[in-house]
Amino acid sequence: MAGGHKVDPQALTQAAKALSDIPKHALAQPLAAVKDIQLVAMDFGQGHQESYGPYRPAVARLANMADSYLKAADLFAQKLTASGGKYEASEADTTQSVKESGR
């Protein structure tokens, strides 16, 4: 019980797994496809080739944003996992202290 609130380390671990795995699985294939896009100006059609100029950098920027999101979600998941471990260790220490004080 930290600060009057119950903390469930398993819930932190489950949340961390969801934060890390779900976005990674959802974005892995589309992100790879976007990064590997093979369009050229002619793919936009005869009258729209000037639209290609801003398209490619914009798509690359979106891919970088998605990649940054994945990294941030993974980092946050690692912090949640670490927090869960700290709560478990604290609970174990507290339990041990209570047991020893009762002797």
Fraction of residues in β-strands: under 5%
Strand-pairing-aware structural class: mainly alpha
Shape: rod-shaped
**DSSP summary, beta strand count:** 0
Sketch the major β-sheet: none
- Bin the helical content: over 70%
> Can you count the helices?
2
CA-atom Rg in angstroms: 24 Å
Structure description:
With 103 residues, the chain is mostly helical. 75% of the residues lie in helices and 0% in strands. The chain contains two helices and no strands. α1 runs antiparallel to α2 (52-101). The radius of gyration is 24 Å and the shape is rod-shaped. The mean pLDDT is 81.
Detail the topology: elements first, then pairings.
Layout: H1 9-35, H2 52-101
Helix pairs in contact: 1-2
List its salient traits.
rod-shaped, mainly alpha, 2 helices, 103 residues
Q: How would you sum up this structure in a few lines?
A:
With about 100 residues, the protein is mainly α.
